[in-house]
Design brief:
Layout (H helix, E strand, L loop, with lengths): L2 H19 L17 E4 L4 E4 L4 E2 L2 E7 L4 E8 L2 E4 L9 E7 L7 E10 L4 E11 L5 E4 L11 H15 L21 E3 L4 E4 L3 E4 L2 E5 L5 E3 L4 E9 L3 E7 L4 E8 L1 E2 L6 E2 L4 E4 L10 E8 L2 E3 L1 H5 L5
Parallel strand pairs: 3-9, 10-12
Antiparallel strand pairs: 1-2, 2-4, 4-7, 5-6, 5-8, 8-9, 11-14, 12-13, 14-22, 15-21, 16-17, 16-20, 17-18, 18-22, 19-21, 22-23
The chain binds zinc ion.
Length: about 300
């Protein structure tokens, strides 16, 4: 055997080994250890733990109540009530609070009410800094054959329909220990949160991220969930939405084909459709978006953050 052939053989062995190490969407997930909280406040027998240090506009924060004597709890933030959920077999309760995308940057009170098993009620309060995200402002021109979609009423109707879909609070956590992942591996071509001015008529916000994708590129479920919508919308075109429980939803827009039906449970990494250019879109791409508690948030705060 020549040295050259030996080197090729060694390279092939290393390459095959590398492939075998590659994670697959269906691989058994490894639970990530819970990080240390940023703040612990007394509440109940244990404490109220905050896993965030302020919130950037359009992100969510995780609260944990590590008190076995708390039967029920609620967080009040930005004038809204967020229920705590208890995962099966755990003593702790969790809540996800959201800093709206258009929430003015300043400090806001966060209040937590806890009902204890002795029938008493306890409260705790702290201030949360909401920080400016520095969203960009972009001007777009939509092609004339789709100009009928540049209509504030179409915009309102679609947001109302999505609002109804995302207002549901399923107390059953659907995602598995693998949490959330990107729906495909490709370049991000448009950021979450941008102000968009369309044909000088409609002013809107970019509710998700856009990824480069030729029509027909496979789109995978970001986490385990139940399909709560699969159909045609004016702006989002062929659209699939998954309900992941606890008020978390993921949406996949402008699809050329849909591979799932409402009511179906899909696994993390399962094919849910093929990307396309349907609806109000100026070229083939994948738009994906995350809603928590009825508010659009930056999906990366879900993918990168720790979840129970
Ligand atoms: Zn988009």
């Amino acid at each position: 055997m020549t040295l050259r052939r030996l080197l090729v053989l060694m390279w092939a062995l290393v390459a095959l080994h590398g492939l075998a190490q590659e994670p697959t969407p269906t691989a058994e997930p490894t639970p990530q250890p819970r990080p240390a909280p940023f703040l612990v406040l007394p509440l109940g027998a244990g404490g109220l733990e905050l896993y965030f240090n302020g919130l950037t506009q359009g992100t969510m924060g995780l609260l944990r109540l590590a008190s076995p004597n708390v039967t029920e709890a609620q967080a009040i933030f930005d004038g809204r009530a967020y229920p705590f959920f208890r995962p099966a077999g755990e003593d702790a309760l969790y809540a996800l609070v959201v800093a709206r995308i258009d929430m003015p940057a300043r400090a806001y009170p966060l209040q937590v009410l806890a009902a204890l098993d002795d029938g008493t009620l306890q409260t705790q309060q702290t201030m949360i800094d909401v920080q400016a995200a520095g969203f960009l402002r972009l001007v777009f021109n939509v092609p004339s054959d789709r100009a009928y979609l540049i209509n504030p009423e179409v915009e309102r109707n679609e947001f109302a329909r999505l609002g109804a879909l995302t207002s549901r609070l399923n107390p059953l956590r659907q995602w598995d220990a693998g949490g959330f992942q990107l729906p495909m591996q490709s370049e991000m071509v448009s950021n979450f949160g941008q102000y968009r001015v369309l044909n000088n008529t409609v002013q809107t916000r970019h509710t998700g991220w856009d990824q480069r994708a030729a029509t027909g590129t496979p789109v995978y479920a970001m986490a385990r969930g139940v399909v709560n919508f699969a159909g045609m919308l004016d702006i989002r075109g062929n659209y699939v939405m998954l309900d992941h429980g606890w008020g978390i939803f993921s949406g996949y827009a402008h699809l050329s084909q849909m591979a799932v039906a409402p009511g179906q449970t899909v696994e993390r990494g399962q094919l849910i459709g093929l990307s396309g250019n349907t609806g109000r879109s100026s070229g083939p791409h994948l738009h994906w978006e995350i809603s928590v508690g009825g508010e659009w948030i930056d999906g990366f705060s879900l993918i990168n953050g720790w979840l129970p």
